[in-house]
Write a structure and sequence with these properties.
Blueprint lengths: L1 E7 L5 H9 L16 E7 L2 E7 L11 H12 L4 E7 L3 H14 L2 E7 L7 E3 L1 H8 L3 E4 L7 H10 L27 H10 L2 H6 L11 H19 E3 L10 H4 L5 H18 L1 H29 L4 H18 L2 H16 L2 H14 L5 H9 L4 H6 L7 H10 L9 H12 L3 H25 L21 H35 L7 H4 L4 H9 L11 H9 L6 H9 L7 H7 L12 H13 L4 H11 L1 H32 L1 H26 L15 H7 L1
Parallel strand pairs: 1-3, 1-4, 4-5, 5-7
Antiparallel strand pairs: 2-3, 6-8
Helix pairs in contact: 3-8, 4-8, 10-11, 10-13, 11-12, 11-13, 12-20, 12-24, 13-20, 14-15, 18-25, 18-26, 19-26, 20-24, 22-23, 23-24, 26-28, 27-28, 28-29
Length: 700
């Protein structure tokens, strides 16, 4: 078996090449954290087995972050293993810097030049490039699977290199540096010049040369790369530049409004336009061709009042059908997010807002993790593991659940749609923004108290704008639909069955519709519900749905449907049941619904996210974070509920005037307190300010 490492800069198409060679389906993206650990898969070519290891993206053999350390450790562990070094044809000059580092190590390199752009900035003479570097060079298109056969042949026929010809090494005077006898001596001498502490520590070497020669090493490499580019490339006159929209998208004043407008468009298409029509159509098909026939079968066999009929009708058809109806909207949301990511836009958003969030202790890496939280909090938390600063990692992990993940939008669609209609898009946007505002506010508090961040390295490149291929569009849709269906088919149906059993049987295990007693879930809900009366939703049904939502947030909607005895999966039917005073889950006005939506957004994370947090940041911080999240959710919901109630009673204008007056009074009190703190009694005061005129006069 031939073992091969796949190495390259981030955003060179490395994971795409890995997927194309091995027929895998690993996540591809334009930001850090997509590959945070090595992925290994075997495949067969011409009867020979090849084991390909996809390593996280690196820029050099000096580690700056967790994922770079993973890659570099793997390379140094087996320096003679064959390496496919992938470079982006449009960024060859920068990518060759890593190639030279690998050559200095004496690694067995096959250079794969990936054609990402349709019209590259220059044409490359691959034969000349191979002759100068002394390595096999293969032109590939990882996405279209062009050149893969030739690349595999190079892997099979590769013969180990003894030593590369690197003329620039003479400029560094490596002979003046004396080391104990060691393999790859020149490589470790260069590491001495670069001051790479982690590598030197492994070899028990002391850093006896200053870091001032780091620039000398980089300059020597780039001089050689410039010469290589001069000989091997010719400029393409048909290219007029790329990223023309960056001056608008990355403008410090326009970046955030543009992003919000794009997200508003995504929400409109997902919740109200295409997504709503597809969802309604799917619900109609499920009800008429699967749900109702299934209910009729059980009714005819066991009777309408049978527990088994009730279980199928309410828990499976009604509960799971309700969640399943959101399948088109879930798929659309992930598709739009994937399009924004794949196009290269998300990388630019992270860069544009890093300066803003940097003031509250969030680095660019944190921004990426939080943006991924809009998709799924569980997978987003995993990307925080590559942060070299422990406090930043903990803080980012704790803040990620405040982002409104895709599992929460069925709650917004059903509850918000019932009370706000077409205006629900503004409610949804407000909820997403509220999650961000709360996360940023908490980050500021953490930064000033227990989790002060250290300065972190954040290397970011902007990929060229490009569209997603139809094949990839279909793949993204299928993958997300498959995951959602598996989730509905296992976790959600199981949870619905448990909730139905708890809400239809008493502690004496008697069937409630026949005995007329109090169910187990209702009894538990009535004990806990008084806590939530100040928030405007103190009914046992509303509270019990939140408890069920701890397993998965989608279960909240299906639980409400079960508690309100709704067997029809249509959103409108569930929404109407929320306005019925006799329902277990009833909301008297829009302020009560807003309160419930806000609490659903901010309260405990799902169990999957909590378990990942415990693994990544520790059980103590996870428990503390969950406790803080509940307290924050309660206080924020309480404030918003009371403001919403006042708006209903007084009107929006009066409430706004009152809030402005309150802010002015609060600012005045803070100003007065600061002035009083700075007030001194001159020479008699031991803490007298240095600017005090009396003290200056006395000192003279």
């Amino acid at each position: 078996m031939i073992k091969v490492n796949l190495v390259g800069n981030p955003n060179t198409g490395k994971t795409t090449l890995y997927n194309s060679l091995t027929h895998a389906h690993e996540r591809v993206g334009n930001w850090h954290g997509v590959t945070v650990e090595e992925k290994v898969k075997k495949y067969t070519f011409e009867g020979k087995e090849i084991e390909l290891c996809d390593l996280p993206g690196i820029y050099s053999l000096t580690s700056l972050s967790y994922e770079e350390k993973v890659a570099i450790d793997a390379i140094l562990k087996e320096p003679k293993r064959t390496i496919i070094n992938i470079c982006d044809a449009s960024n060859l000059e920068r990518n060759l810097y890593l190639t030279l580092s690998l050559m200095e190590l004496g690694a067995n390199i096959i250079l794969a030049v990936n054609q990402i752009e349709k019209v590259p900035a220059y044409k490359i003479d691959f034969k000349k490039l191979s002759d100068i570097l002394g390595v096999p060079v293969v032109a590939v298109d990882a996405e279209k699977k062009v050149g893969l056969e030739k690349l595999n042949h190079e892997v099979l026929d590769y013969k180990s290199h003894k030593k590369y010809n690197l003329p620039y090494l003479k400029k560094l005077h490596l002979d003046d540096i004396h080391l104990p006898k060691i393999e790859n001596e020149d490589f470790y001498k260069i590491k001495l010049l670069e001051g790479d502490e982690s590598t030197l520590k492994k070899l028990n070497l002391e850093k006896n040369i200053t870091n001032e020669r780091v620039e000398e090493v980089a300059e020597a490499r780039y001089d050689f790369i410039h010469e290589v580019m001069r000989i091997c490339t010719t400029k393409n006159t048909k290219v007029y530049g790329r990223s023309k929209f960056d001056k608008f998208i990355m403008n410090r004043f326009l970046a955030l409004p543009i992003f919000l407008c794009l997200m508003a468009g995504v929400f409109y298409l997902t919740f109200f336009s295409i997504g709503a029509w597809l969802s309604d159509s799917l619900v109609y098909l499920l009800d008429n061709f699967i749900g109702q026939p299934l209910i009729n079968i059980f009714t005819s066999q066991f009777g309408a009042n049978s527990p088994l009929t009730g279980l199928i009708e309410v828990a499976v058809v009604g509960g799971a059908g309700t969640v399943l109806g959101f399948l088109p909207q879930v798929a659309l949301l992930f598709l739009f997010l994937s399009l924004l990511e794949e196009s290269g836009y998300m990388s630019r958003v992270a860069f544009a807002i890093e300066d803003i969030l940097g003031k509250v202790g969030l680095s660019g890496k944190s921004v990426y993790t939080l943006l991924m939280g809009f998709g799924c909090s569980t997978t987003a938390v995993l990307t925080a593991r590559n942060m070299e600063d422990k406090n930043s990692k903990i803080k980012t992990g704790l803040l990620t659940p405040y982002m409104s993940c895709s599992a929460k939008f069925p709650i917004y669609a059903v509850l918000g749609g019932a009370f706000f209609g077409a205006n629900n898009i503004f409610v949804i946007m407000g909820l997403y923004l509220l999650g961000v505002v709360v996360a940023v506010s908490l980050s500021y508090i953490f930064e000033k108290t227990v989790l002060k961040s250290k300065e972190q390295s954040f290397i970011l490149e902007f990929p060229p704008y490009h569209s997603m291929s139809m094949k990839k569009v279909l793949f993204v849709l299928w993958e997300n639909m498959k995951l959602f269906l598996l989730r509905v088919g296992s976790l959600i149906i199981c949870m619905n069955v448990i909730v139905w059993l708890l809400s239809n049987f008493s502690f004496t295990f008697s069937y409630i519709p026949r005995s007329g007693g109090v169910s187990m879930l209702e009894a538990i809900g009535r004990v806990i519900s008084p806590i939530f009366i100040p928030l405007g939703f103190g009914s046992w049904g509303a509270v019990s749905a939140l408890i069920a939502g701890l397993v998965a947030k989608e279960v909240i909607v299906s639980s409400i449907a079960m508690f309100n005895n709704v067997s029809d999966a249509a959103n409108e039917v569930i929404g109407e049941s929320l306005k019925d005073p006799t329902s277990a889950v009833f909301f008297a006005s829009s302020s009560h619904v807003i309160s419930y939506l806000v609490f659903s957004l901010l309260y405990f994370p799902c169990l999957a996210t909590a378990s990942v947090l415990a693994k990544e940041i520790g059980k103590k911080w996870t428990f503390l974070g969950i406790l803080i999240q509940f307290i924050v959710a309660y206080l924020v919901t309480l404030a918003i509920f009371n403001i919403a109630r006042l708006i209903e009673i007084w009107g929006l204008l009066k409430v706004l005037l009152c809030l402005i007056a309150f802010i002015i009074v609060l600012a005045s009190v803070v100003f007065i307190i600061k002035k009083l703190k700075n007030r001194h009694t001159c020479s008699l005061c031991p803490h007298c300010d240095k600017k005090c005129k009396t003290k200056k006069r006395l000192n003279k």
